Amino acid sequence: MSANPHKNNFFDRVYEVVRKIPKGRITTYGAIASYLGSRGSSRMVGWAMNHSHNAHGSIPAHRVVNRLGILTGKHHFGSSNMMQQLLENENIQVVNDQIVNFEKHFWDPLKEL
DNA sequence: ACCATGACGTTTC
DNA sequence: CGAAACGCCATGG
Fold it and tell me: How far is it, in rounded angstroms, from Cα A66 to Cα A47?
């Protein structure tokens, strides 16, 4: 742990954006990374989500998928079908681990936020 | 400081 | 269309 109160952690930035994702909407790791200013740091976003369990409050990580709309991180939700279940609960269709009408549900922080 | 890891993305074969 | 390679950057050992 680095003691740098001046610098906000990259993680907190990601969490903050993810929390702002409206219900029934989804976004991608790359979109969040671009919003943070690092277009190529999409990996950091995903990695930050891996620490989401350490963040305060609940992080709707199920609303974050890769650019193809595939539930790449479904395996991190305890049950493999849990992520899909959460998405379907928000009127988001998921077929073959992929979101249907992905662009339709896509929420871009660069444009919306 | 160097090496390894990672819920990604793009390009190439 | 699928697999592999490279890039990308923060965090940990």
Answer: 13
Q: What is the pLDDT of residues A8-22, one digit of tens each?
A: 688 888 999 999 999
Strand pairing class (A94-95; A98-99): antiparallel
Three-class secondary structure assignment of A11-47:
HHHHHHHHHCCCCCCEEEHHHHHHHHCCCCCHHHHHH
**For strand C, which residues in window 83-112 of chain A come within 7 Å by CB?**
none
Does A3 map to a domain? no
What predicted TM-score, i.e. pTM, was given to this entire model? 0.88
Residue A90 lies in a domain: yes
Beta-bridge mates of residue A65: A28
- Whether A51 contacts A11, CB under 8 Å: yes
What does the pLDDT average to over A76-104? Answer: 91
> What is the distance in angstroms measured between the alpha-carbon CA of A47 and the sugar C1' of B5?
10
A2 domain residue, yes or no: no
